[in-house]
Amino acid sequence: MTIDTGIPPSDVIVIGGGTGGYSTALRAASLGLDVVLVERDKVGGTCLHRGCIPSKAMLHAAELVDGIAEARERWGVKATVDSVDWDALVATRDDIVARNHKGVEAHLTHAGVRVVRGTARLTGTRTVRVEGVRAEAAPGAAGAPVPGTLDLTARRGIVLATGSRPRTLPGLAPDGRRVVTSDDALFAPGLPASVLVLGGGAIGVEYASFHRSMGAEVTLVEAADRIVPLEDADVSRYLTRGLRKRGIDVQAGARLLDAEVLEHGVRARVRTARGETRTVTADRLLVAVGRAPVTEGLDLAAAGLTTDERGFVVPADWDRLETAVPGVHVVGDLLPPPSLGLAHASFAEGLLVAETLAGLRSAPVDYAAVPRVTYSAPQTASVGLTEDGARARGHEVDVNTMPLTAVAKGMVHGQGGLVKVVAQAGGGQVLGVHLVGPHVSEMIAEGQLIVGWDAEPADVARHVHPHPTLSEAVGEVFLTLAGRGLHQQ
């Protein structure tokens, strides 16, 4: 059965309503294009409903718990956490998600984007069939899901934005209770007393940090020789030190040998970096070994498209994020590196593609100038090249580092941390800014401007940083690189 929704050919069809998809739709509509957005679940995607927003809400709660412990142990404030009301915590998290979701829907409605709810597949280079269309997809209609189909046509182009899903391990099927992925870890029942986290990237580290704040015994296993392996080596070292100080058992250079699901948890054997075999028993096993692009059922071949060996849709033109099929563009987690699989990178990609489809000339996304943040305790934040990455590209570099505890506000926080800057030798362009410590996610925007605008240390050193703040350490590092060192000799 085909549902006649009265939708004529549009200028643009966007498949997927996550951060990349809805940002494309909003910007295209603001430029006067007629846009249809197809989403089979809820607009907002993984970031809003299962990732960025709910996880950061939970991490904020964890920060409050940590603050009470610091108040008692460091500042003489006789406070304790009697218990955590899990239901109340979840209710607050869900309220934040729901309000954000309503906001996105309102933005799309106000912009005039027509949202079709169903599962899309390509039938050509400008045509899409939507199956399982829900009746509320029709303008002014409402009702229960209807097993119908809807054929759509785009005059200018199609944007693929179907996102990603967590990778899993053979023999470890997630059950939402004992074995969980990053998509369902926050929605598993209650707080476990112990957690084994597989994967020491940003997602694994954040979940390890959250559960430790909530009182769980945590073991974090990473196959690479250090956690957050894409970050600067000094950042990784400081983060490892901070996590271990909090009681997290960080095992880098380790690998899972096997795991057994028990009635009330899991038992796993882990080969450590020293070649020892350890048995870890935990209430919950969290698998955070990366994400895989979602293209199943999209029927890329119908539009003459293929994926690479990893499942990514590779643009033929990165400046326009356009595939080898003219008019078919791709944004978000379907893109391979150098795209970063980050929501804020997806926003930038959506803006670029929308402007391209509107006939505007827009600057390509500068992925080197996109910040990367891990919202653990301590946090990490970086932008640009690591020291090793800069040297590997043939740069002669000047490097300066400064502990956050070298400035007064860092001493107040008492959590350690680091500022590291990598610049071309002899006062040249700043190539990377790397931070680890409390609240550094709120400090990296300055680094983004420094790297993105090709600033040199002397350019930054001219600007006065407020005292006493953590950002003062950033200013001090640049003063020293510019030959004007004050507190740092």
What does this structure look like?
- This protein starts with 9 loop residues before the first strand and ends in an 8-residue tail after the last helix.
- The chain has three domains: 10-47 and 94-165 and 292-368, FAD/NAD(P)-binding domain (3-Layer(bba) Sandwich), CATH 3.50.50; 168-289, 3-Layer(bba) Sandwich (FAD/NAD(P)-binding domain); 378-481, FAD/NAD-linked reductase, C-terminal dimerisation domain (Enolase-like, domain 1, 2-Layer Sandwich).
- Helix content is 29%, strand content 26%.
- The chain has 489 residues and is α/β, with parallel strands linked by helices.
- It is globular.
- β4 and β5 form a beta hairpin.
- It catalyses: N(6)-[(R)-dihydrolipoyl]-L-lysyl-[protein] + NAD(+) = N(6)-[(R)-lipoyl]-L-lysyl-[protein] + NADH + H(+).
- One of its GO terms (molecular function) is flavin adenine dinucleotide binding.
SSE blueprint and pairings:
Layout: E1 10-15, H1 19-30, E2 35-39, H2 45-49, H3 52-74, H4 86-111, E3 114-117, E4 119-122, E5 127-134, E6 145-160, E7 164-166, E8 179-181, E9 194-198, H5 202-213, E10 217-222, H6 233-245, E11 249-252, E12 255-262, E13 265-271, E14 277-282, E15 284-287, E16 291-293, E17 328-330, H7 343-357, E18 372-374, E19 379-384, H8 387-392, E20 397-403, H9 408-413, E21 418-424, E22 430-437, H10 444-452, H11 457-461, H12 471-481
Parallel strand pairs: 1-2, 1-6, 2-3, 6-17, 8-15, 9-10, 9-15, 10-11
Antiparallel strand pairs: 4-5, 5-6, 7-16, 12-13, 13-14, 18-19, 19-22, 20-21, 21-22
Helix pairs in contact: 1-4, 1-7, 3-4, 3-5
